[in-house]
Amino acid sequence: MTRSKRLYRIADHVGQDQEAAARELTRLGGQLQEHEEQLARLHEYCQGYHQQLAEAQARGGSAARLANYSQFLARLNEAIRQQEHNVASAGRAFEQQRQVWIEARARVKAVEKAAERCAAEEARTEEKREQRHNDDLNLTRLMRGKQS
């Protein structure tokens, strides 16, 4: 097996690593998007409850009811903080995986380029060999023609 063929096989193997990294990147991107969407829903929900609390206060709602709104909003704000943490963690994981994918892609390109250079060198070597062979044949024919 020629060196270029071995390198192309290595490139295929490294390409599989790149594809696996891309699949993981896609999966992590989906998780990040889900966390961001959940955070947006929590913010909308919180905004709605703040509005309900303001309306209850304007109507002069009972102290117990206002306390319940406040307690629920505190829990909701804690859920938002937790979801913000989840978004940040998912974002870091996505960026780390993006770097893994970029490095894998660079390895594939490097091995493919090396394989292409080897293939070109092998082609030049083969071309020179064929030229030498043809030159030898022509020289032999010429020598035979002179002997006749």
Overview of the molecule:
The chain has helices at 3-59, 63-147. With 148 residues, it is mainly alpha-helical. It has a single domain (3-147), classed as Helix Hairpins (Orthogonal Bundle). The longest helix is centred in the C-terminal third of the chain and has 85 residues, at 63-147. The mean pLDDT is 93.
Main sheet summary: none
Q: What portion of the residues fall into strands of 2 or more residues? A: under 5%
- Level of helix content? over 70%
| CATH topology value | Helix Hairpins
Give the tally of β-strands.
0
* Shape-level CATH architecture: Orthogonal Bundle
Contiguous helical run count: 2
Radius of gyration: 35 Å
Euclidean distance between termini CA atoms: 44 Å
CATH hierarchy, class: Mainly Alpha
Mean pLDDT: 93
Shape: rod-shaped
Class of secondary structure makeup: mainly alpha
Low-confidence stretches: none
Number of domains: 1
The helix/strand series, from N terminus to C terminus, equals: HH
Subcellular location: Cell membrane
Protein name: Flagellar FliJ protein
Biased composition (Basic and acidic residues): 120-138
InterPro entries: Flag_assembly_chemotaxis_eff, Flagell_FliJ, FliJ
Give a quick rundown of the structure:
With 148 residues, the chain is mostly helical. The protein has helices at 3-59, 63-147.
